[in-house]
Amino acid sequence: MSYYKHHVFFCLNERANGEASCAQHAAKDAFDRCKARVKAAGLAGPGGVRVNKAGCLDRCAGGPVAVVYPEGTWYTFVDADDIDEIVDRHLQGGEVVERLLLPPDVGR
Amino acid sequence: MSYYKHHVFFCLNERANGEASCAQHAAKDAFDRCKARVKAAGLAGPGGVRVNKAGCLDRCAGGPVAVVYPEGTWYTFVDADDIDEIVDRHLQGGEVVERLLLPPDVGR
To answer: What is the nearest CA distance from B79 to chain A, expressed in angstroms?
Structure first.
């Protein structure tokens, strides 16, 4: 069994040269909201959910992005409602949020 | 299928208050070595291996630590030889390196 039931990684990468990056698209706000909502729902911790900072996940064309392991589900999101839906339906409910899935061919 | 066959996350967390953290234990050197060796072996990229920076993975008592998804294999390591063995045997060979496994009860 996985140490965390769901381990979520948010790309918080910020490029020094001013190129587009997830950090420019409020990725940190999304990370903070996800972490707070997971904690408030009592989901955080071993056997539960871990919301993690990450560097560039190299699927920048679909950014901002996050990935949930061990299931390997990739999401792209726009606003707080998207994050809330990922927490409530996927991290709590165990259901994939189809409308926010990152298309499989999206890369750097 | 997972976008990456093996997605490796290294904790590179550094605590501002001087408390013990993975960054104090050469986690960045390990990350750099892993990334370079994966690239040199031609394993990097979609369908292959991604070596990623991460924030605190919250299993600090066993640090420095890294986790490989989607399999959810957690490692602790000491030196460059350990990293090379993880790359060669696990990321290239698909075999778990038993001697470097983080014990399941190790937490924060």
So the answer is: 23
